[in-house]
Amino acid sequence: MEQVPRYSTPAPHVLRTTVGQTDLSSLSTPDLRDLSSLAGALQARAEQEISARKPPFPSSLPPQLVISWLPLRDVASALCVSSAWHGTSAAVFQIVAQSRGLGRERADIPWSEVVRYSMKRVTVISPGKLYSTYTDLATWLGVYDQGWVHGLGAEIGEPLLVGDTGDFIAEIESPIHAVAFRADRTDGIYCLGRRGVVVGYPGEFSPLALTPAQVKTFRVSELKRQLAGRGLSTEGLKADLKERLLEALRIQDEAIVRYN
Questions:
Q1: Separation between Cα atoms, residue 256 and residue 253, nearest integer Å
Q2: Which of 69, 85, 253, 257 has the most CB within a 10 Å radius?
């Protein structure tokens, strides 16, 4: 017995039946009511059938759709899934850049570089300001369930060192001024007091080691930039700013000796 496909009758064919082509003006009022009732019942059955069917799932997803849900640090790995995905990398990074309101000065600059240099980086200058057991702080920074290195893991297993770097994740100022970042060397997420790190864009605070002679040549704008990167106040006169930065550098040098 020949099987008839379930969806063999196209909708346009139904609409072109004798009823569909009839001049309704020739029908009586009772006939029109019957026709209207029949049309309503047909509509209800059609909507019921549509709801019962499972929505079609695409055989493949465009890379932009998948990658847009990934943390930025995982985008590079995702683009290595296949040559097709890698070929869309420029478009993906352009979407990321534009979502952040970033532009590029020249057309020959890859969008991946625009995105990479828009990411804030963290450099550790005082590992002793590590919060390894403060669960509330990790929750406030949004990293408690993201691989936060805590307890003995932070103190013994993967200790931070002066000079360790990583990707900035989040910062809060109250009740504690602190930051969360993912370290390059250990791939762990750490919570530190804000004054234990320098935060800036790639290369912005290189080198970190500054001499008093260099600081004395800084203008107010540079003094404020250096202080802001260290999480310190930028208020006050030029002399106050210099003194504050020199004190921060002295503490930084002591930390290098103590922890390295």
A1: 5
A2: 85
Instruction: Please answer whether residues 180 and 145 qualify as being in contact, where contact means their C-beta atoms are separated by less than 8 angstroms.
Output: no
Residue type for position 253:
D
> pLDDT digits over 70-94, tens only?
666 566 667 776 776 767 777 777 7
Decide: pTM greater than 0.70.
Answer: no
Which H or E element spans position 67? Answer: helix 63-67
| Residue 164: strand, helix, or coil | coil
The C-alpha atoms of residue 171 and residue 192 are separated, in whole angstroms, by 10
Domain segments of the chain: what residues?
63-114, 121-200, 212-259
Span 1-13, pLDDT tens digits: 454 455 455 555 5
Name the residue among 179, 171, 207, 195 with its Cα closest to residue 247.
195
Where b means 16+ CB within 10 Å and e means fewer, 171-197 reads bbeeeeebbbbbbeebebbbbbbbbbb
pLDDT in tens, 163-209: 899 999 999 998 899 999 999 988 889 999 998 999 988 777 878 88
